[in-house]
Amino acid sequence: MSLPDPFPIQPFTRPAQAEVVVPGSKSLTNRALLLATLCARPVTLTGALFSEDTQLMAEALRKLGFSVTADAAAATVAVGDQANAFRGGECELFVGLAGTAARFLTALCAAAPRGVYRLDGVPQMRKRPMKPLIDALRSMGGDIRCPGQEGFFPIEIHARGLAGGPISLDARESSQLLSALLMVAPLCRREVELTLTDLVRRPFVDMTAELMVQFGQPRLTWEAEQQIRVPPNVAYVRPTGEYRIEPDATSASYFLALPLVTGGAISLPGLMPAGGRSLQGDIQFGDVLADIGLTIERDSRGVKVAFAGGKRRAVQRGFSEFSDTFLTLAAIAPLLEGPTRISGIAHTRKQETDRVAGMARELTRLGQHVIESDDALEIQPRPLRAAEIIETYGDHRFAMSFAVLGCHDLHGNGQPWLSIRNPACCAKTFPHFFELLESVRQKTFAP
């Protein structure tokens, strides 16, 4: 479906009432794709995400010699032909703006036994942090060259396997740097003794570690908070030949927050089922919404959230461990009672765009008083001002977060008051987001 650009958001004039099925987790899909390539036998991922980021990852794996058979309608991806990969020669890989694909493929190619691999992305990808990962792989014996600016894409890898041994890593700018190293560490010729030179956001690392266990690896040994040991020569295996991907907790954040904007209730099957345990740290965002006033009920099918009215309380929270969701909170902060303070987000200045500065800029254009520091935003609500266009800076999370705010019936007449620039940027992780949001609005009006 082609969307107009800019795209006007149609407000809800009744409380939301719908069931929403969100796509599979991007973080889990790309991690599981990589781990499936490291198994000796074929692995099928079910519930997989089909988006720009995961398709870039899948296409790169095909170029490396793996078979990757995708069925978007069934949400399955089958990975096979592991024995035919990395046969040597030269290979060009394009990662777009996909940070997971960039970091994971860099580590995978460095660990390959042979071949020359050239990796590049869009201009913005050339600004995203890679140097700590490159330096760590070099210290493990990897031959990685930077034809442009040292420590950034594009890069050229002359593969010869990795030795392992003691290494250090500064992963404060992205936990993906550490996750990439951990997943290839079992391929090294000797034990990896990894020392973190700065604190790392643990939820995504814990996700990686748990996924490695589910693919046959022993649990990682953490010595204090700064040292990790990974034994060598332990084969990856998925005995059932299948792995189920959870619904994406970050994508769910928009629909979890929607009732706080429109009133009503939303059910999300498969998300946070009672008795279940999620691998995704962004599930913590539900606790933030509960503090604001959202009612959350879990059963064996998933979760139901509701807001029947009353106060929407402002919150002050650190988001360092689930920072992809901070934009969702920031976008609805104008509707809350009192100042909202969001901290622990300095690293998001080096993601798809400078998310801290961009959010401050767009909220100010909507009439809000925003205090910006390096690591935090404080949003002091003022009467909302209609905006012809919200800039997204090519960042999918800006588009989806402000779309939720746009569902607020600002003028009380159901007329759009907010439009989203470049709605197609949501293809990165949630290609059908706007269609799904409109379907929720339509269901709200169904008899």
Brief account:
With 447 residues, this protein is of the alpha/beta class. It has helices at residues 26-37, 52-63, 99-111, 131-139, 175-184, 202-214, 249-262, 285-292, 326-332, 355-365, 396-406, 433-445, and strands at residues 7-8, 16-19, 43-46, 67-71, 76-80, 90-94, 116-120, 143-145, 155-158, 165-169, 192-196, 221-223, 227-230, 242-244, 264-269, 295-298, 302-307, 316-318, 340-343, 369-372, 376-380, 387-390, 418-420. Strand 22 (387-390), helix 11 (396-406) and strand 23 (418-420) form a beta-alpha-beta unit.
Notable features of this structure?
12 helices, 4-stranded mixed beta sheet, 447 residues, UDP-n-acetylglucosamine1-carboxyvinyl-transferase, Chain, 21% strand, 23 strands, alpha/beta, single chain
Secondary structure elements and pairings:
Blueprint: E1 7-8, E2 16-19, H1 26-37, E3 43-46, H2 52-63, E4 67-71, E5 76-80, E6 90-94, H3 99-111, E7 116-120, H4 131-139, E8 143-145, E9 155-158, E10 165-169, H5 175-184, E11 192-196, H6 202-214, E12 221-223, E13 227-230, E14 242-244, H7 249-262, E15 264-269, H8 285-292, E16 295-298, E17 302-307, E18 316-318, H9 326-332, E19 340-343, H10 355-365, E20 369-372, E21 376-380, E22 387-390, H11 396-406, E23 418-420, H12 433-445
Parallel strand pairs: 2-15, 3-14, 6-7, 10-11, 18-19, 22-23
Antiparallel strand pairs: 1-23, 3-5, 4-5, 7-9, 8-9, 11-13, 12-13, 15-17, 16-17, 19-21, 20-21
